[in-house]
């Protein structure tokens, strides 16, 4: 496979779900409660990223990127809207990268807005339709 064929972007967003609880007898599993892949919480899952705070979402993003890298994929960017949890998660990953670089004496001004996972630089981006909508809303609300 050509290197260009391995390039990818990780896109993530929160999604509303209909709150519903069901029991799968075959798997002996309750479906419809919060499950982040590591633990199940006794709360209705009414969003695909329900109650996912910044640090927890950051860990999920990092895990997904590491798994993609293990397959040979080259994640070059992330794309999301400017939701509070998304911004907090990206800020957490940027700070983690900054601390790692400072500890290793690698601090470089151009890398301050990059996420680095397994020595691969990843650019965090916000999707432009949401940015345009936010600008429009600010102009309407704040003149």
TrEMBL record:
It comes from the Eukaryota. It comes from Parnassius mnemosyne. This is Transposable element P transposase-like RNase H domain-containing protein. InterPro entries: TNP-like_RNaseH_N (IPR048365). Residues 2-50 form the Transposable element P transposase-like RNase H domain.
């Amino acid at each position: 496979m050509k290197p260009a064929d391995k390039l990818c972007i990780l896109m993530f967003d929160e999604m509303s779900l209909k709150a519903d609880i069901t029991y799968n007898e075959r798997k002996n599993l309750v479906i419809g409660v919060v499950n982040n892949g590591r633990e199940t919480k006794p709360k209705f899952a009414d969003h695909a990223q329900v109650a996912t705070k910044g640090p927890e979402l950051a860990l999920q993003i990092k895990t997904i990127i590491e798994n993609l890298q293990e397959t040979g994929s080259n994640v070059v960017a992330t794309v999301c809207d400017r939701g509070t949890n998304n911004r907090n998660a990206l800020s957490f990953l940027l700070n983690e990268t900054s601390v790692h670089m400072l500890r290793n004496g690698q601090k470089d001004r151009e890398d301050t807005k990059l996420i680095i996972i397994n020595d691969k630089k990843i650019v965090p981006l916000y999707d432009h339709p949401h940015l345009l909508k936010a600008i429009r809303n600010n102009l309407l609300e704040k003149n």
